[in-house]
Amino acid sequence: MSDPSAEPDPSDPAFVLHRGGKLATVSTVPLRDRDDLSLAYTPGVARVCQAIAADPGQVYDLTWKSHVVAVVTDGSAVLGLGDIGPEAALPVMEGKAVLFKEFGSVDAVPICLDARGVEDIVETVARIAPAFGGINLEDISAPRCFEIEAALIERLDIPVFHDDQHGTAVVVLAALRNAAKVTGRELADLRAVISGAGAAGVAVSTILREAGIGDLVVSDSKGVVHGGRRDLTEVKRLLAASTNEDNQTGTLAESLRGADVFIGVSGGQVPEVAVASMAPDAIVFALANPEPEIHPDVAGRYARVLATGRSDFPNQINNVLAFPGIFRAALDVRASSITEGMKLAAAAALADVVGTDLAADHIVPSPFDPRVVPAVAGAVAAAARHDGVARR
Fold first, then answer.
1. Measured between alpha carbons, how far is 129 from 135 in angstroms, rounded to an integer?
2. Element (H, E) at 252
3. Range of 94's domain?
């Protein structure tokens, strides 16, 4: 039986906006008469097909491949709603495509798969990949998201990017760089605690280690991730081996004692006493939506710098600051993949956009700042060429 509270409310502006969907296909060429028809379709199109068959690289110049991304999900980890299935995920994927277009001038197609097996998803995406210049994976639950992304990166010669992991990580790193500056420190001076060892938690841990964070401890629902635990997945075993240098054990709250940074990507609530035990000039990124792990009113009593995933508080950590510019650059240089160097470059460029406006309540720019996408895209393109994955 359906949930009455989920029934569309005709007076709700969200339902009004979504009526009929948020996307449509639009022709980029005229179709006024028989001559136009003969060029856009048969017989003229046959000559173009033959040119691509003779030189496959021409597909980038003669089709939409150079500027279009597939936004792919299975609906298993949508926003904070969880496993709601591919149909219910479609409004989010449409929204992601709108953001690609509006912020990065990248065309995107939402693709919601009725599949859950890793091999099924990988095979399906690989088979449709020839029509796209890049693959943005979205809202796929861990640990399958790691396996799917790794398999597709290995199999395809176009960029594959799981935004829940890497988009989040790029923006978190940019914000933390600037938060450290506000408090007169460097990344290497900081001891950080991450709540959450899923997709975002693993990616944030990876990029912070690459960027030179001083010390890093990760906690999941069962406590601190350390090498002595026997319940760890392969991904968490690797995480234990690359973090927690002091081999801490115990709870998240215990790990926060004396910590400089809290980064929440889990949704679990953190008691106020644990926040109070953090070091002076603490930095709190409570990113769960809609309910942060630490409410800003609580965090504000103890933290010098606060960020959330919400738009109604300062310092929103929003992936839209990263993925449009990253994909814009990847498509422009026809990158074969997105490297760690490209992600680090994106974070540094994003942090630099803030410039002299840096303040405790302004550590990341607005998504509507027109400097964001050009800055990120320029840095990512340069990094792609440096890393040898650019093909133009």
1. 8
2. helix 252-255
3. 22-163
Side chain identity, residue 226: H
Per-residue pLDDT tens digits for 105-139: 999 999 999 999 999 999 999 999 999 999 999 99
In a domain, residue 5? The reply is no
d(CA 138, CA 111): 10
Q: Which residues are catalytic?
A: 41, 96
Please state, as a whole number, how many other Cβ atoms lie within 10 Å of the Cβ of residue 220: 22
CB atoms within 10 A of CB 2: 6
Q: What is the pLDDT of residues 337-363, one digit of tens each?
A: 999 999 999 999 999 999 999 999 999
Nearest to 283 by CA among 199, 237, 214: 214
Q: Quick one: tokens of 142?
A: 């861990």
Whether residue 76 lies inside any domain: the answer is yes
> Token digits for 192?
């950080």
Among 163, 183, 216, the domain-final residue is 163
Place of tokens 């009725």: 114
Number of domains the chain is built from = 2
